[in-house]
Specification:
Largest sheet: 7 strands, mixed
Number of domains: 1
Mean pLDDT: 81
Helix content: 25-40%
CATH class: Alpha Beta
Structural class: alpha/beta
Strand content: 15-25%
Shape: globular
Region (Disordered): 69-145
Biased composition (Polar residues): 110-121
CATH architecture: 3-Layer(aba) Sandwich
Pfam family, one: Pept_tRNA_hydro
Biased composition (Pro residues): 127-139
GO molecular function, one term: tRNA binding
CATH superfamily: Peptidyl-tRNA hydrolase
């Protein structure tokens, strides 16, 4: 039996119950909700906690919940197109294009339902009936365009480890160091490109509204202290990440104070019911991309 491929999803935030529900911990919140749904326990490992999941189990959870999985991380959900419909004449009902005849009236009378006219009782000579034209040779049915289901990426041997770093946000790089050591992952691997880095980072994003998720394959930390700390440690900007919108304060409140406060009840409802499952779907899409190299 081949060894499982291990992928890490790191939810950035501040450790401890005081910060657990704050906006700055958005990345951790969606991971904790995933672990809770799958009833998977967190285990402590020095400067980090982790949950070990089968990638296939996460995908199955999403299917059970009716959550569409994007064809690629950061892409749109892979939902099949809806067949086009057209309205019948004189009727509000729509007919599908597959083997449906156009209706001439509300009763949808077909061309073969009217009775034939008889000429046997007429006294006038009857003209010769034209010889009916030979019936055309039936054509082979044209194959209709089929909706091709995408080939499912095998995830049975893919392991996803959800990670919470123990410490403050601006110490994330130092805490990541121990995670790498514990898993024999050289720092140099981060300098070879995003397609070979088995890490996906989740963090809050001030410049996006609550309810939005943005994927970024690499680039600057854009003012995020956690990503800045990690980039300083690995000396690379090739860090795939999902940025979870928390919005900016509408008043003149200090940004640091704003992100260290809990979500409002309506915001938390959005995070739990929409953002979390959508993020899980992008995690699965990322895992599939890591397997296929896409």
């Amino acid at each position: 039996m081949s060894a499982a491929r291990v992928l890490f999803v790191v939810g950035l935030g501040n450790h401890g119950p005081r910060y657990a529900a704050t906006r700055h911990n958005a990345g951790r919140i969606v991971l904790e909700s995933l672990a809770s749904r799958l009833q998977a326990p967190w285990t402590a490992h020095g400067k980090f906690d982790q949950v070990v999941l089968s990638a296939a189990s996460v995908r199955q959870l999403l299917r059970n919940d009716g959550v569409a999985i994007p064809t690629k991380v950061g892409g749109k959900p892979a939902t099949p197109p809806t067949p086009k419909k057209r309205k019948s004449k004189g009727s509000a009902a729509a007919l599908t294009t597959s083997n449906a005849e156009d209706s001439a009236s509300d009763g949808e009378v077909s061309a073969n339902s009217a009775p034939p006219v008889s000429t046997s009782d007429l006294d006038v000579p009857q003209p010769a009936m034209p010889t009916p034209a030979p019936s055309p040779v039936p054509r082979a049915p044209t194959a209709r365009r089929q909706l091709v289901e995408p080939v499912e990426v095998p995830l049975d041997d893919v392991e996803i480890r959800l990670v919470r770093l123990r410490g403050y946000m601006n110490e994330s790089g130092d805490k990541l160091r121990q995670l790498l050591r514990a898993n024999n992952i050289p720092v140099a691997q981060f300098q070879t490109g995003t397609t070979t880095v088995p890490f996906l980072f989740l963090h809050d994003e001030l410049d996006k509204p609550v309810g939005s998720i943005v994927y970024k394959a690499s680039g600057s930390p854009a003012g995020h202290n956690g990503m800045r700390s990690i980039q300083g440690f690995v000396q690379s900007s090739a860090l795939p990440r999902l940025r979870i919108g928390v919005d900016r304060p509408t008043d003149r409140a200090d940004v640091a104070d704003y992100v260290l406060k809990p979500f409002t009840p309506s915001e938390r409802e959005t995070v739990d019911s929409q953002v979390a499952p959508a993020t899980w779907a992008h995690i699965v899409a990322w895992a599939e991309g890591m397997v296929t190299g896409a």
